[in-house]
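thought: user wants a sequence for this fold. calling inverse folding tool.
action: design(structure=
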């Protein structure tokens, strides 16, 4: 395989692994064996290693010397810091998005909400959380602030791991209509309301976390990556 083909394969595998992590099919702390990942995807260890390096750069995977790769496990301190950072960035981003949103953007956000609730109805909370996170990333994109969008994307990715570890009120997602309210404010161009709603939404998410040290049960890698 040439270098370009190999890079594309590594990127594709990294994308599949990242999605499994975001959807909580791969739990924090799960070991990512190079041999097993290579067997599942039918690629060499070299390609797998390149994919894991990409995920390490995005802080979704930890590469431990002489021990291999593991899905990252954010600490309690980092959990607080991530949501504090989101509470600083995203409310102002929501205000900016309210000033720039287009009909096409509204359609994309509505689609995310529909997909989120469909996943909840199907009992797939991991998928619902992934779509919820992408809703926030889309708002940052709409705000047209590329640097902040990149920060928000990384923070949302870390939030997925944090929620997998520390979320104690799973029913809260079904009871919350925060995204509907946010979308209404954005559609109306009400930046101040969008800012307030985003701040309260993120504080509610933080309050739903049980920030005590915990560990995740190991999962079968093959089962986690099964379509």
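)
observation: tool returned 227 residues.
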């Amino acid at each position: 395989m040439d270098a370009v083909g190999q890079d594309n394969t590594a990127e594709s595998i990294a994308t599949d692994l990242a999605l499994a992590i975001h959807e909580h099919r791969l739990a924090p702390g799960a070991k990512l064996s190079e041999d097993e990942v290579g067997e599942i995807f039918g690629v060499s260890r070299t390609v797998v290693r390149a994919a894991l390096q990409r995920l390490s750069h995005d802080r979704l995977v930890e590469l431990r010397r002489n021990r291999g790769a593991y899905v990252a496990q954010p600490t309690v301190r980092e959990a607080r810091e991530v949501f504090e950072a989101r509470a600083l960035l995203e409310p102002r981003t929501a205000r900016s998005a309210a000033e720039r949103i287009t009909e096409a953007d509204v359609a994309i956000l509505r689609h995310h909400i529909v997909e989120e609730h469909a996943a909840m109805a199907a009992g797939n909370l991991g998928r619902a959380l992934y779509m919820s996170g992408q809703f926030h990333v889309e708002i940052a994109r709409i705000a047209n602030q590329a640097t902040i969008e990149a920060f928000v994307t990384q923070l949302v990715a870390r939030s997925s791991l944090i929620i997998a570890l520390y979320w104690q009120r799973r029913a809260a997602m079904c009871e919350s209509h925060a995204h509907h309210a946010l979308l209404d404010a954005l559609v109306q161009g009400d930046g101040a309301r969008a800012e307030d709603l985003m701040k309260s939404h993120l504080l509610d998410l933080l309050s739903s976390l049980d920030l005590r040290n915990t560990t995740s049960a190991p999962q079968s890698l093959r089962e986690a990556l099964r379509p």
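thought: summarizing for user.
answer: Here is the designed sequence. Residues 3-73 form a domain with the Arc Repressor Mutant, subunit A fold (CATH 1.10.10.10).
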